[in-house]
C-alpha cells in the first residue's frame, strides 16, 4: 500500500522509562510487469532517552547475539540498543504479516550491521540497504563480506551518481537503487548500461510519474518504487476487469443500499467479478453443507454488505491473470479502506454506519486511477453522499482527516502523522501505525478463513 507502519515495543530489556519502540512503514516495489514483488521497510528509529548504567548492562536478550561488551559488564552504546530494537521489530509477526509474503528491503545502519543481532533476520526474506552516507572502512567491508558468506544480500541505496563509497561497496551489492528524484537525467542511460553490464539488478525509486516509469522501463530497470500506478495518467497501461460503463453502474449501485436482486442483476454484467466472488463464497466456509453454485446463493451465503465490499475492491483488479495479492492498486485501495474503517471505530460515537462510510471513502479515493481523468469528474458520476465527496476531494471532516492520515502513512511522513493525530484524539501515532499494519495484512487475503486470494481468470 501503500505505506504501512507500526510502532512495536523493542524487546531490549532496558528500563521501563527508556523502553525503545521502533516504527516501520512499507512502500511497494513493482516488477517490469507492474506487479508487487517486494516492499521497502522505512524505519523510524526510536529515540534513546535512558541512562547508561547497571540496568542497561543486561539490555540484550540472551538470543540477540550481543557483542562482548554486555557480557563483560560494559554498558551497550545507545546506538547499539536502538539497532537491536529495530531488528527485533522487523522479525515480529505484525511486520511479517504486512509483507504478505513479499521480500523486505530495509535500510541498515552501521550499528545494525556490526551487531550479531542482525543474524536473526532471515537472509532469504531481507535485502539489506546501504545508505550513501554509511561510513565505509575496512571493518565494515569485512563485516559485509562475512554476512555475504551467510547469504545476506545487499542493496546500494539512494544512488544519484558514483562516489568513493559506491565504488568500494559495489562488488558486494546485488542490487542498485537509483533515486529518480535527484539523479542527473543525462547520467541515467550510461549509469544503467554500466550497472546492467555488471549484472546488477536496478531499482528506480521515487517513480511517482508515468513518464519516469516509462523512462526507467526503457533503460532496462528491473524494479520500480513509487506510486505511479495509482495516478490517473497510469490508467492507459492498466487492463481493467470490466467495461468502463459497467463498472460505473456498479459503483453507483454499491454507493447506496442495493437489494440482493439489484446486486445480482448488476453483477451479472461483470463476469470476471462473478467468477471471483463465487470462488470467494466457496472458499470462505460460509456456505455450510453444500457448494455454492449460483450468484444469488453466494450473495445470501455471505451477505449483501460483505459481498458488496469485496466487489468494490475487485473493481481495482487488473484484467490480466494476476494474483490479487500481487496487484499493487488493489492492495493499495484495500489497505486504505480497511485502515479508514479500523481508525474511525476508535473515535467517540462512531458506529456501523460511520465505519461503512469510512471504508467506502477509502475505496473510492482511487477511482480516477481506474477510469482516468480527474477525480472530481469521476466522483460526480457516483451517488456518494456530500461528506464522502468532501472527504475525498477536499479532505474535509473526520473522514478527510483520516484519509490525510493514511496518505501520510503511504509517504512515511511521520511528522504529518503526528500533526493529524493531534486533531484525531484520542488516536495516537502508535495506534494509527498499528492499525495501518493490520490493514496491510488484512488486504493480503480475501477472507480470514480462506487460503488466500484466487487468481483472476480471463
Summarize this structure briefly.
The chain is an alpha/beta fold and 458 residues long.
What does this structure look like?
Residues 240-430 form the HDOD domain. Residues 52-70 have a biased composition (Low complexity). By secondary structure, the chain is an alpha/beta fold. The chain is built from 21 helices and 9 strands. It has helices spanning 68-71, 78-90, 93-99, 110-114, 138-149, 164-169, 188-197, 210-218, 244-254, 260-267, 271-283, 295-302, 304-314, 328-344, 352-364, 367-371, 375-381, 386-394, 397-411, 414-422, 429-443, and strands spanning 5-9, 21-31, 36-44, 104-107, 126-130, 153-159, 175-179, 201-205, 223-225. The protein has an 8-stranded mixed β-barrel with strand order 2-3-4-5-6-7-8-9, surrounded by 5 helices. Helix 9 runs antiparallel to helix 10 (260-267). The radius of gyration is 24 Å and the shape is globular. 44% of the residues are buried.
Number of strands: 9
Whole-number mean pLDDT: 81
Shape: globular
The number of distinct helices, counting runs of at least 4 residues, comes to 21
Domain tally: 2
The CATH architecture classification of the largest domain is Alpha-Beta Barrel
Taking strands numbered 1, 2, ... along the chain, how are they ordered across the largest sheet? 2-3-4-5-6-7-8-9
Give the helix/strand class: alpha/beta
What is the N-to-C order of secondary-structure elements (H for helix, E for strand)? EEEHHHEHEHEHEHEHEHHHHHHHHHHHHH
CATH class of the largest domain: Alpha Beta
CATH topology of the largest domain: TIM Barrel
User: How much beta, percentage-wise?
Assistant: 5-15%
Biased composition (Low complexity): 52-70
Organism: Paraburkholderia aromaticivorans
Region (Disordered): 48-75
InterPro entries: dGMP_Pdiesterase_EAL/HD-GYP (IPR014408), EAL_dom (IPR001633), EAL_sf (IPR035919), HDOD (IPR013976), RNase_Y/CdgJ (IPR052340)
